[in-house]
Amino acid sequence: MSVTSEKPTVMQQPSATAPMTFTNNAPPAANAAPAGQPRDWSTGVCGCLDGDFGGFCLSCWCPCIVYSQYKSRLDHLKATGRAMPPEQVETFGTPGVLWLALNCCAGFAWILDFMARDEIRKRYNIRGDGITDCLTSCCCLPCAQRQHHRELLVEEQHQWGADTNGMQQHAPTLDQHYPATQEPAQQPHYTTHPPPSTN
C-alpha cells in the first residue's frame, strides 16, 4: 500500500477593501459664494413687495403650498444639480402635506421653513445664523418663503439661460409661482387663396 502525501492547500483570504461610500455627484450651486466669503441674500426679506405680491398672498393664505413647491425644487437641485422644470413641480406634494399636518397637530410648521432656510443658506453660502433664520421663519413666514423662492429662482434662471440643447426653456419671473401654466401652442395661420378662375 502506498501513501501519497499531498501538499496542503493554502487559501488566501480576500484583502480588506475600502467601505462603500455614497457621494452626491451634483455640481455645486452656480450662484454660491466662494468658500469663506459668505454673501447676502439675493433679495431682501421684504422683496416680495416689489413685484411678487401674488406669491406673497399665496404664502399668506396657503403657506403649505408655497413650502411644498420650493422644498421640492430645493431637494431636486440638491439631488441632481439641475433645476426642476416648472411643469414638473407639484402644486401640493409630500412636503406640503407634512407642513399642513404639523401645523394642524402642533401649530408650529414654520420650523420646516426654518430648516429649509438653513439648507438654502448653506447651499449658497449666505451670511446668517440659526437665530436670525428662526426669527425670520417664525415672525415673517410669508416674506421668508418668498425669499426662499427667489433665491432658488436665481439658480434656476442661471441654468435655464445656459441651456445648451439649443432650446431656451421658459423661466418664470419673480412674480410667478409654481407650477407655471403653459399656454397652448399657437397653430400657424395659413391664408388660402381661391383657385384662379378660368374664364
What does it look like?
It contains six helices and no strands. α2 (63-80) crosses α3 and α2 packs parallel to α6 (141-161). The chain has a domain at 47-161. It has helices spanning 53-61, 63-80, 94-106, 110-124, 130-139, 141-161. With 199 residues, it is mainly α. The chain starts with 52 loop residues before the first helix and ends in a 38-residue tail after the last helix. It comes from Rhodotorula toruloides (strain NP11). Residues 16-35 have a biased composition (Low complexity). Residues 1-36, 180-199 are annotated as: Disordered. Residues 1-15 have a biased composition (Polar residues).
Rg over CA atoms, rounded to whole Å, is: 27 Å
The main pleated sheet reads as: none
- Helix fraction? 40-55%
Order of helices and strands: HHHHHH
Counting DSSP H or I runs of 4 or more residues, the number of helices is 6
Low-confidence stretches: 164-171, 179-191
Number of strands: 0
Binned strand content: under 5%
Biased composition (Polar residues): 1-15
Biased composition (Low complexity): 16-35
Protein name: Cys-rich family protein
Region (Disordered): 1-36, 180-199
Main features:
elongated, 43% helix, 199 residues, mainly alpha
Secondary structure blueprint with pairings:
Elements: H1 53-61, H2 63-80, H3 94-106, H4 110-124, H5 130-139, H6 141-161
Helix pairs in contact: 1-2, 1-6, 2-3, 2-4, 2-6, 4-5, 4-6, 5-6
Protein name: Cys-rich family protein
InterPro entries: PLAC_motif_containing
Region (Disordered): 1-36, 180-199
